[in-house]
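This protein record is not my work; I was only asked to verify it. Where you disagree with what is written, explain briefly why. This is what I was given:
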Amino acid sequence: MADESRREQAGAGLDTLDADEFARFERLNEAYKVRFGFLFILAVKGATKHQILAAFERRIQNDPDIGFATALTQIARILRFRFEERVTVYGFVDKPGKPDAKPVDKTKDNAVDGRFGERAQEMIDALARHTSEEGKVTRLYLSREHGVAADDVVAWMRQAGLKVSEDNLGTVRGYLPPNVAGHGKLLLIGSHIDTVHDVGRFDGNLGVVAGILAAQGLKERGAELPFGIEVLAFGDEEGVRFPITLLASSTAASHLDWRALQAADGEGVTVREALKEFECDPNVAGGAAYDPKEVLGYLEVHIEQGPVLEKENLPVGIVTAIAGASRFRLSVRGEAGHAGTVPMGLRHDALAAVSELVLAIEEVARAGKRDNLVATVSEISALPGAINVIPGEVRMTLDVRAANDEARASAIDTIRTKARAIGARWGCVVGMDRFHDAATAPCADPLQAAMEQAISGMGVKPLRLMSGAGHDGQAMAKLTDIGMIFVRCRAGISHNLLEHATGEDMGTAVEALIRTIETLAQQERNAR
């Protein structure tokens, strides 16, 4: 492990400390050892020397118990990094730490410029440093970390030669104008830079990075573009901080729900208040909308978040549709009672009813395999929550998704019918409150065809597959045609620290995106 640690320390700049910085490190190390009984432990991969010093000074103030727990967390993080460097799903890599990017061979039509993968990894790592939780990646909408990440995106867009602006929902926009005669429309490319709690670094962020690199690549190659390109870095796809989702992309698609600005986070801060703090003007948020007549389409690059591409040994794939999703809050009300005195036959146990209901939901979902139906109960709260009291009420959430809206609606009706029957058997009342509904968003055939031409031209099999997860494209489908390129995701793991895409695969995705845009540009020029 020593060689890897030395490389990471050098990458963080610890081998370039000046005299004052070195003395500061020495003092902190000695004080830390005295306070906690062991040396300071930190996973420095992707950090700077200034961030390391700041973490040092912050953690030395911790209580001993917290200090010990934090050290164990950092050790686990280091071990995960080492595991990632050495292991793939199929076995051990030949040379741990070997760069993914390869120099481009200009003699081959299917060549991928190795700089794309290298640069994508650098940008992904840089965004991962902007987190509210040390040792994790957590970046919520309109947070300070979101603002700093947006600043990075602004800088990269400018370096790529794009004209940068920011709308009043916090979306960063980078514009590349057309350079040949055309109809003056826009091709939009985007994804999001917000995250869930303690997540991987590729979800969403890769789409923004790929869009910037593709625009830069098109400009460097002198591509003839009869339309403008606008790269979008949305900020609210995950819906973690506020009980809303896809606010930024829905607004861009002319579907802003003004009531959503009154939604509040766990601290009672509303979206409206957070926007003002973010230096946005919520009163003119609707101005972020595009005119449908001026938009050619929307493209998004995203990690698959599933195992299909890896199973097929393919770096990228073509998305056919984004599954529709419905979300519910369920309340099952029975009757609380003493756990020792109420006979089993006279109980109205809400949790027992829910146990049967969860299994019924599982049965409904498994029966819908042909329509890629899935149903998930992930939050359950039993009240009053005392060990000697029969649960009188249970609150839970339900997420239902499918490849088409008819199958999803039918499954929901079946679940509702079963819920009522189960409630009646247990003497409980079941309520289902729908709080989110997103229609299935099919990807446009012309965009899928352009992607197939691009990917095939790179010598890669153009596999088509569905997305079970939601994306900003789902909102943008209300504005224009959408298309998505999936990128292979190691072991299908996502929303997890082990989420991973290789530099080579990311580079392939950027090249596929560039060629897709070139194909669309050629079609537009031919149509004139």
